[in-house]
Amino acid sequence: MKLAIAQDGEIVSAHFGHCESYAIFDIEDGKGVRQADLLSPGHEPGRLPVFLAEHGVNTVVAGGMGPRAVDLFHMNGIEVYLGVSGEIDAVAAEFAAGKLSSGESTCTHGEEEHENCEEGSQ
Q1: CATH number among 3.40.50.1970, 3.30.420.130, 3.40.190.10, 3.40.50.970, domain 2-120
Q2: 21-36 confidence digits (pLDDT tens)
């Protein structure tokens, strides 16, 4: 299984579509092995789910993203964990151990801004 964690520095990005890169982990036998990070290809509607699927990603983790983006990830066979925060390697270890749970998206834009956020973060 391949896990992508939206990252800003060494912490989970609060917003998937605005992160600088994705930390990629191979998850096997309850352990995560970090691979090379993938730089974000940019904030282009519909691109991120396809981009990560092309890299074999099965699951993504972020603080937040819009509901339309979540739907697009699911359409590409990618599971989504939201409401996650913390240091990248610790989050990956928690996921690999089966202890990471998904929560509420941390996307806190106002209603008008959130619609733009949904369009842009897919």
Answers
A1: 3.30.420.130
A2: 999 999 999 999 999 9
